[in-house]
Amino acid sequence: MTAEELALHGVPDSVRVNTIDNAGATLLAAGSEEQRQRFCPGMAAGEIVFSVLYTEPHAGSDLGSMATTAEPAGDGWRLAGTKTWNARTAQAHFGVCAARVRGHGDNAYAATGLFVVPLDHPGVRVEPIATVNPERFFTVRLDDVVLPADALVGAPGQGWSLLSEALGMERTGVCFAGRARRWFDQLVAALHARGQLEEAERVHRLGALDAEIRSCRLLAWRAVQGLAEGRLNGAAAAAAKWWTSELAQRVAWLAFDLLGPAVHSDRHFPDLVLAAREAPGLTLAAGTSEIQLTTLATDLLDGGDPWEEPT
Ligand SMILES: Cc1cc2nc3c(=O)[nH]c(=O)nc-3n(C[C@H](O)[C@H](O)[C@H](O)COP(=O)(O)OP(=O)(O)OC[C@H]3O[C@@H](n4cnc5c(N)ncnc54)[C@H](O)[C@@H]3O)c2cc1C
């Protein structure tokens, strides 16, 4: 509910998503008691911020081909590699970083470990990336970063299942559905203010979109319910993420089409300016639309039912 309210009120959510939904969920699922005590209260209080360090220059959708390595060094670990498209890293204190743990075979799924990396640690370089997105992105270079043993969260090969689980909340689509609603309401208000809500055809089109946004919210909440009950499967999350993010993107494009470039100088509707800049990333972040569709199609072709109720 917090995530939805924040999205409905246009509050930037990447710090919360990365720190609470992602790193926080990972620490709660697999962190030691000491790790939880050290990080979780500060994260909940907004005093400790995490960045998510998964994507690499040559490993995004295909994260299994990640090249960042973690090898034993004395009692601890040495990390080397490059991460990229990491949101808000300059604002963060720590990164939760996926790395291939040496000595655990070639299969990335079985060899991935998640590590807590202090972002001011020797060997860590954080470099900004210029984009049109209102979010700020960074590349993080890890040049032989030596970490203590307790930097590892869970077991060395547990990283893949942990990071997949942590993406679950984002893939419910609650935040995307919230954006779609907020942007749509601002679009209607802008058209109304300009006296551009007269044409029946336009009103019908907006009415149909309004209905889609209402139903996509229900889909997102169905996914949240599945997550809360521990039975949200990958295909259901993929369907929710795909539809909600594609719909929010369509609302942003429609606003741009109907209001034209002038929307950029209309200070009464600041969100619609941000919408046009944010929309391209919605169908990429947390897994692209093509990847969600592949997940869904694979499940359906295997005879699965993403929304099957437990018996
Ligand atoms: C707003 C935003 C926030 C992000 N935040 C973070 C963050 O905090 N931390 C982090 O680590 N990463 C973050 N990312 C990165 C994000 O996870 C990647 O962009 C995403 O996984 C896609 O990877 P890629 O950019 O390398 O694209 P690629 O994987 O190279 O894909 C390029 C295109 O090819 C398509 N494609 C790829 N493989 C297939 C396939 N098998 N079948 C069909 N089509 C395919 C994709 O759908 C896409 O259209 C963020 C991205 C965005 C946009």
UniProtKB/TrEMBL annotation:
One of its GO terms (cellular component) is plasma membrane. InterPro entries: Acyl-CoA_Oxase/DH_mid-dom, Acyl-CoA_Oxase/DH_mid-dom_sf, AcylCo_DH-like_C, AcylCo_DH/oxidase_C, AcylCoA_DH/ox_N_sf, AcylCoA_DH/oxidase_NM_dom_sf, Mycobact_Acyl-CoA_DH. Its cofactor is FAD. Transmembrane segments: none annotated. GO terms for molecular function: flavin adenine dinucleotide binding; oxidoreductase activity, acting on the CH-CH group of donors. Gene3D superfamilies: Acyl-CoA dehydrogenase/oxidase, N-terminal domain, Butyryl-CoA Dehydrogenase, subunit A, domain 2, Butyryl-CoA Dehydrogenase, subunit A, domain 3. Residues 53-132 form the Acyl-CoA oxidase/dehydrogenase middle domain. The keyword Isomerase does not apply. It comes from the Bacteria. The keyword Oxidoreductase applies. Residues 157-300 form the Acyl-CoA dehydrogenase/oxidase C-terminal domain. It holds the Pfam family Acyl-CoA_dh_M. Keywords: FAD, Flavoprotein, Oxidoreductase. Belongs to the acyl-CoA dehydrogenase family. PANTHER family: ACYL-COA DEHYDROGENASE, ACYL-COA DEHYDROGENASE FADE29. This is Acyl-CoA dehydrogenase. It comes from Streptomyces silvensis.
